[in-house]
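Why predict the complex rather than its parts? Because the way molecules touch one another can change local conformation, and only a joint prediction can capture that. The input here totals 631 residues.
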Amino acid sequence: MSGFGVVLAKECRDNLRDRRTILASFSLALLGPVLFTGLMSFALTSTLGESREAFRLAIVGAEHAPRLVAHLSAQNIELASVELADPRQAVRDGRESLVLVVGPDYPNRLAAGNPVVVDLVYDSSQMGTARRNFARAEQLIAQYGQKLGVLRLQLRGIDPAVLTPIRVSGIDTASPAARAASILSVLPYLLVLVVFMGGFYLAIDATAGEREHGSLEPLLSQPVSRAQLVLGKVAAASVFSAVSTALFLLSLAVSVPFVPLHRIGMSLHIDLLACVQMFLVSAPLIVLGAAMLTVVASFAKSYKEAQTYLTVVILVPTLPLIVTQMLGLAASPTLMMVPSLSQATLITGLIKGEPLNWSHLAISIGATGALAALMAWLAVAMYKRERMLV
Amino acid sequence: MIRAEGLEKSFGPVRAVAGVGFEAPDGAITALLGPNGAGKSTTLRILATVLRADAGRAWVDGHEVSDDPAAVRRAIGVLPHGAGLYDRLTARENIAYFGALHGLPKARLNERVEALVEQLDMASFAHRRVAGFSQGQRIKVALGRALVHDPKNVLLDEPTNGLDVMATRALRELIAGLRHQGRCVIFSSHVMQEVATLCDDLVIIGGGEVRFSGSLEALSRQTGEADLEDAFVRVVGTAAS
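Output of the joint prediction:
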């Protein structure tokens, strides 16, 4: 076996025995898609279920307004007549989330044709449905009031339409499908992170870790060229990164069918071919990541120092993604020149079920591959310097 | 057989080695003796080809260290200062890794590893991972690693550092054994006694220069001190002042 192969095999075996490295390298790959699909399912169900959910409305003094109560109970609301000394406190304490307070003067004022005030107590700082339920209750009560007003006007022989010379009708074009698609755009970030996290700990261990433990000096006095040594280490980091990426894609393929996309008329299935294509797209990024991590970790003298540097480094590949998302760039040959961005764009397309653009893929592989080669060369050059040992 | 001539090495403004030259024959133990920071480690690292000398030349079995580092690396076994091992690999795997880097074929590699396990008395722990090994056990593994390709020349940088009396004695016997096998052994130390019981030739380094070179008797004769430690202090001290 060549020096390259010996180093590659040793680094893989060595790091496979480190439970911490295994956990840190592969946990994001396995759990990321699960989290992602969970988030997506949640977003979908909350969008779809918005108007159907029944919620609880506590009413204090229900006996004063039987018709209002009857109007409300015709809606999809869980009404509860309660006795509360201090409704505000009850909402603050979280015993009730929404309380309607009807005063004892309600029937008299209503009969006299005077405006009546009812209190609707809620807590807007509460997460979740509090605001939405408040808005619905408010709307329903106003609706009832309007109905009364209309009746009164008609009684007096006036057309109720005179009260509303202008009506605004809002039309929301956001569909649940569009929401789901916007969540899809998280996937490329996740993939880039997974690619970089896969080789993260091995790259540190094989460079700064080796330096910290004092095993680098004897290693460098072996009759193996620096190129073979360093490329062996880069290859080992690539192997871990590749495994991480493969796990991610498989985990994604398994968990995506659990998202209830059929409910919004979308279909998203990632078959084996798409997985293989996505892996092919990611391959040059895997090598680039491994080489980049190796170069930067080589500057560090200790494991901890390297960890600090690399944490910054793994943010770098996400920058182009953020920029494009803000500018909303479409796939183009120029875009394919940018590492991480080109892979993200191609993979988003594959997830959406679009066919792979082979000329784009060629540019992506060429550009990212060239940069990966440059990084690997840089890593070798670093290990040729004496300063590595001083 | 190792020969050095006028080696010089600076790190920034610090002159670590300023003209070191000596000869270490085969079948003998040559000690590099000197106080801390004298330039012993730097000299050994130049011989091991991990550092490049600013000036001067050195030969290992006739191969010049900067002209033909690959040949030099094949001809030497190095036990560097602090001798780092891979904690998650077993003692055998640590030794075998370096043997594989030397390109030993599988059968020969296994043979060498087993021979070293026996020779260095590691049978009781050779199958265990290195994490948790005592300093004495670590030195043995590191020594085994340095000897796996059966090098003619062996460089040991303060090998007895941090060892207890028993481990030091065992190591001393091993080093004596290396001489017996006809190897050229250079080992550095700052402990005079250790050197006196073991070495054939003495090279005393102080301030990056060779202060004395020769046998123990010659040292006594030259300094007029019967006590070796006094002789050492005199050689290093007078030159330094």
